[in-house]
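queue> holo job accepted (pyridoxal-5'-phosphate)
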Amino acid sequence: MKWPEHGGQPNKIFALKGIATDHHFFDFSANINPLGPPPELKESLFKAYDQFERYPDPDYRKETKLVAAHERLYEDVVLLTNGGSEAIFLVAQLFSGKKALIIEPTFSEYERACYVYRLSVSHVSLQLDHDFSFPLEKVLSKIEEVDVVFLCRPNNPTGTVVAIEDIKELLEKGLECQTTIVIDEAFIHFLPSEITDLTHLMDTFSNLILLRSLTKIYAIPSLRLGYVIARPEIIVQLKKNQIPWSINGIVASFLPSLVAQDGFIEATKSWLQGQLKLLTTEFTKLGFYYSPTCVNFYLLKDLNQDTNTEELLEFLLDNKIIPRHTHTFKGLDGNYLRMAVRSAEENNYLLETLRNWREKRC
Ligand SMILES: Cc1ncc(COP(=O)(O)O)c(C=O)c1O
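queue> job finished
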């Protein structure tokens, strides 16, 4: 079966399963902010009309300054990109023909970018039997064999976060053997505030590259915005390879309103933690496994049907809920469903549907 590679493609799932396309469905497959874009953006959209006929500044000086100031960084360590995806491909290109290590199961675009730039790839798996915990010793033992490590924190699809102490050990070992550690923080803005991001490690570890996306937190997948944080020489190299005017002028013109949205991020974080608490309490009562997530998505499976989620997937589809299958995540082999945290009403509807499922199976 040809499963779609990413979430957010309900029509492909309907076609695959031979279900007539239905416009009334709940899309739990795409992991963007369920609160939607900040309402203030509506006003900016109207103003952005004037931007349509102009090329943006190819160096995005003003916009880079804004993002850097927002992250309390110097401008020369930041490169804006067309979403986190462009950031991944630009960084992979730096290591063309070299050796990469990817910690799986994770976002599939690291592997694809490595394939495009002919990197040879090896993998280490998270501990599937231990709540997807990070296999520090295994990764440390592989670092000297590779030029670059790709790691996702918080990780897509598990929602789990590698401890900062483990990250420091990787970076230290990486410095010893000249290996770059690339950490994708596309979902960093969803984390509870007590879990720190990694920008403060930039001064100590020259081998650290961070990738970010604002697409997810601001729910703007049609506009796209990402950035790389790395030492200035790397930023210069990445910029040389970037397609001119890569970031569209509309999103560039939105930046002042976006970076002024700290309240929106804080509100998302606290709302999300409340929903996660409610969902996970109910999943436990209903006999479902969920990955120990800290963010806006999680892996789910019925503990009574350990290796067959196909039936559950079809039951949810029949009830107009679109999960993200996990056939294309290495090591998961379709044994879990990745679910987004959606609005409170949609989450309640999911719980109600799972209760019905459980009643039928008892
Ligand atoms: C871990 C991760 N990094 C990066 C991206 C891509 O981000 P963007 O949509 O900003 O290109 C995604 C998208 O799903 C993702 O899951």
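queue> The two ends are 30 Å apart (CA to CA).
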